[in-house]
């Protein structure tokens, strides 16, 4: 079995499906490129982690804190009917936590968003509007822009 890298890198599928917006102290924040939903993903910058229980106790607490901060942002920015928060990993094993603002009028309601409809990539204007809605609610600990990985 080849040695496992101890250096974090974002899974290629996540990189392909999302825009990296920036970072919290532990996690990168991604926006899934599907304009049908405000769909964000937190990815802890830890190598070779597939499950929350594999994080150190300190990182587990930090992940929960960042998830709650993001949830507060989404509630304020988008005023959804419901937030869906999930760590599935069936297609991408790298630990990542989905945060999806759901609306009774959205394309998939009340079903899960996965596989319900083909993704509708953001236009430049839609992406700018989505980010502008989120920007005022992100905490000071959030840094815009992509790290090396």
Automatic annotation (TrEMBL):
Every HIT domain range: 41-109
Pfam family, one: HIT
SUPFAM superfamilies xrefs: HIT-like (SSF54197)
Keyword annotations from UniProtKB, A to Z: Hydrolase
GO molecular function annotation: hydrolase activity
Gene3D superfamilies per the UniProt record, alphabetical: HIT-like
Protein name: Diadenosine tetraphosphate (Ap4A) hydrolase
């Amino acid at each position: 079995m080849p040695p496992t890298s101890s250096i974090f890198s974002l899974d290629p599928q996540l990189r392909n499906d999302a825009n990296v917006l920036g970072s919290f102290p532990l996690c990168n924040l991604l926006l899934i490129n599907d304009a049908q939903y405000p769909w964000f993903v937190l990815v802890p910058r830890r190598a070779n982690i597939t499950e929350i229980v594999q994080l150190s106790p300190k990182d587990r607490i930090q992940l929960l804190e960042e998830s709650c901060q993001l949830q507060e942002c989404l509630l304020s920015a988008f005023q959804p009917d419901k937030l869906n928060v999930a760590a599935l990993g069936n297609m991408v094993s790298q630990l990542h936590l989905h945060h999806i603002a759901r609306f009774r009028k959205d394309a998939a309601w009340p079903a899960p968003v996965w596989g319900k409809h083909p993704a509708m990539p953001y236009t430049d204007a839609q992406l700018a509007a989505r980010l502008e809605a989120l920007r005022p609610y992100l905490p000071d600990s959030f840094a815009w822009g992509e790290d090396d990985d």
